[in-house]
């Protein structure tokens, strides 16, 4: 028997035909122009430059994750906790890191998942 799957849709926009946010709405304004400059900027050259910058930063970050594989990594976490582990992998949304041999103040965990929201910074040797 097939199970129906619900589809979540964005609410209708201010013009009634689009699905988005009114640029004059409080929600849009709260997000700030820096985070949504690509939506507000009509200048295509400026938009292209911003997108290229984001592409470069994303590529560097993904390459750094690849370089960390099977390397010892030091993580600075909240509450002044510092831990060390062998980096394994990241999930597709980069919300969790899978690590091995996690050395914590309480002992060593053979395998663990670290939530990225709990990590302030991390470092590793190239």
Commentary on this structure:
There is one protein chain. The protein has 126 residues and is α+β, with helices and mostly antiparallel strands. Helices cover 28% and strands 32% of the residues. The protein has helices spanning 26-31, 37-40, 44-68; strands at 72-77, 81-90, 96-104, 107-115, 119-124. The chain is elongated and about 55 Å long. The chain starts with 25 loop residues before the first helix and ends with a strand.
Q: Unreliable stretches, pLDDT < 50, 5 or more residues?
A: none
Structural class comes to alpha+beta
What's the story with the biggest beta sheet? 5 strands, antiparallel
**What is the rounded distance between the termini?**
53 Å
Q: What quaternary form is this?
A: single chain
Total DSSP helices: 3
The level of helicity is: 25-40%
The SSE order reads HHHEEEEE
Strand order of the largest sheet: 4-3-2-1-5
Shape: elongated
The Rg value, from CA coordinates, equals 21 Å
Number of strands: 5
Pfam family, one: Gemin7
Protein name: Gem-associated protein 7 isoform X3
Domain SUZ-C: 1-25
Region (Disordered): 11-33
């Amino acid at each position: 028997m097939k199970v129906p799957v619900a589809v979540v849709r964005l609410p209708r926009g201010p013009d009634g035909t689009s699905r988005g946010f009114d640029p004059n709405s409080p929600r849009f304004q709260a997000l700030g122009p820096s985070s949504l400059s690509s939506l507000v900027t009509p200048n295509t050259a400026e938009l292209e430059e911003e997108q290229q910058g984001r592409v470069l930063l994303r590529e560097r970050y993904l390459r750094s994750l690849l370089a960390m594989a099977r390397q010892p990594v030091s993580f600075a976490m909240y509450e002044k906790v510092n831990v060390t582990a062998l980096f394994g992998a990241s999930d597709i949304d980069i919300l969790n890191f899978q690590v091995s041999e996690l050395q914590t103040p309480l002992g060593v965990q053979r395998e663990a998942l670290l939530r990225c929201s709990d990590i302030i910074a991390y470092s590793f040797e190239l």
